Amino acid sequence: MFILSKLLLIAILPLTWVIALLIYALVTKNNRLRIKLLFTGLVLLFLFSVPLLLNTYAKLWRYPAAPLKSGTVYSCAIILGGFGSEKQDSSGYFNSASDRFIQGLKLKATNKASHLLITGGNASINPDGFSEGRWVQSQLKDFNMADSNVLIEGKSRNTIENAAYTKQLLAARHLPPPYLLVTSDFHMRRAMLIFKKSGIDVIPYPCHYIAGVEKQGLYSVLPSAETLHYWELYSKEIVGYVVAAWHKY
Predict the structure, then answer these.
(1) Which pick of 107, 169, 206, 229 has the fewest CB atoms within 10 Å?
(2) Which residues does 232 contact at the CB level (< 8 Å), separation at least 6?
(3) What's the whole-model pTM score?
């Protein structure tokens, strides 16, 4: 299922459709069909490069944040991995999703959560020895964070495994629910589905907003390569959501 989800993602990427249409247009001997394929491919390329379409979709896909109870200290903030990546030399670095890490630390620093649980391993099809969880654990030493307040899970490859291993850690430490679930805005809908189906009582705490929050202006109808890249993230969420809905927990 893990490998199948990776392959399915490639098949539904908007850029994959565009490339397939353009290649077909190059090899077909039917001139009328060639024109139709080229036109369709260019239209799709334009639509999926326009921020306006992405922002509209992002607002519809968004899982709303839940207000935190005033004065309540939650037992644990669960921070989903994906904010730490592997360098060529097998060391790690904080990537563009590091707002997950920042918001998790903020919850602990402002006494909104007494514990942090960071879950993430290696999502590569051919993983080596790098583990995001273990790398983050080494980084936390620079933040003077007490080991007793941090739980690390470094084996999971996807969100389904995040939930499974997290459930075991929470039970072992006897931390009472509900828990704060910290992950990227675009990922929250799938994460909430998985954690709820896994029997974990979580409150959504989205962060790392990449679309659907900024004011719309003239730029929103102008093509952007960045927008095309962001569709890859949302396409991944569609595949992951379908897989999660059918998965047996």
Answers:
(1) 229
(2) 13, 15
(3) 0.91
Token pair of 19 as six digits: 């490339």
Could you tell me the two tokens for 87? 């360098």
**Do the domain assignments include residue 187?**
yes
Q: Is 64 exposed, middle or buried (0-12, 13-18, 19+ CB in 10 A)?
A: exposed
Backbone angles phi, psi at 13, to 5 degrees: -60, 135
Query: 201 with 227, same domain?
Result: no
**Do residues 156 and 200 both lie within one domain?**
yes
Residues 23 and 121 reside in one and the same domain: no
- Looking at the domain assignment, is residue 69 inside a domain? no
In sequence order, the 6+-apart residues with CB closer than 8 A to the CB of 103 are 79, 182, 205, 207
pLDDT digits (tens, 9 = 90+) for 72-102: 999 999 999 999 999 999 899 999 999 999 9
Of the pLDDT bands very low, low, confident and very high (cuts 50, 70, 90), residue 239 is confident
